[in-house]
Design a protein that fits this description.
Elements: E1 10-18, E2 21-29, H1 44-62, E3 76-81, H2 90-99, E4 104-109, H3 117-133, H4 150-159
Parallel strand pairs: 3-4
Antiparallel strand pairs: 1-2
Length: 160
């Protein structure tokens, strides 16, 4: 009998302070995602978790005591794409299509340092084409202000 792989959702909370600004960062990890033989709707626990966090925040905002509300909503999903293969897997497409209306998705080419620069370029272009083809909305970096220095503009352009 096969052991079924479950998608586990693990939260790590870190308090960060930089230049007097305090920030609580919550990293939500999903070990086991996509590891099963049958990955049908394995993205569902992730989508349910995101929806639960939004519902909880809405309930807290709608309540009478709104002083100490904790914002546990998921604001960004960094989605790692395997560098081995020829673009997006069907699981990648299914996951991103299911979640792109719920959360900002930032696709990242995992282990890109194992590829040559030309391979990285080809892989990125292939992934961008597939994302456009399937109508997946991913996070777009905003335009930088016109009064920024040239070095910052170049850095911003490289990120895009």
């Amino acid at each position: 009998e096969r052991i079924t792989q479950t998608v586990e959702i693990t939260k790590h909370v870190v308090d960060i302070e930089e230049k007097g600004v305090k920030l609580r960062l919550t990293i939500v990890d999903t070990p086991g995602f996509g590891d099963a033989v049958n990955n049908t709707e394995c993205w569902k626990p992730v989508a349910d978790y995101i929806d639960q966090q939004f519902e909880q925040y809405f309930r807290d905002e709608s309540g009478l005591n709104r002083k100490n509300i904790q914002d546990n909503r998921v604001h960004c999903c960094i989605y790692f794409i395997s560098p081995f293969g020829h673009g997006l897997r069907p699981l990648d497409v299914e996951f991103m299509r299911a979640l792109h209306q719920r959360v900002n998705i930032v696709p990242v080419l995992a282990k890109a340092d194992t590829l040559t620069p030309s391979e990285v370029g080809r892989m990125k272009n292939k992934i961008r084409e597939e994302i456009d083809h399937y109508g997946i909305r991913i996070y777009q970096f905003p335009e930088c202000d016109s009064d920024e220095d040239e070095e910052f503009k170049l850095q911003d352009q490289a990120l895009k």
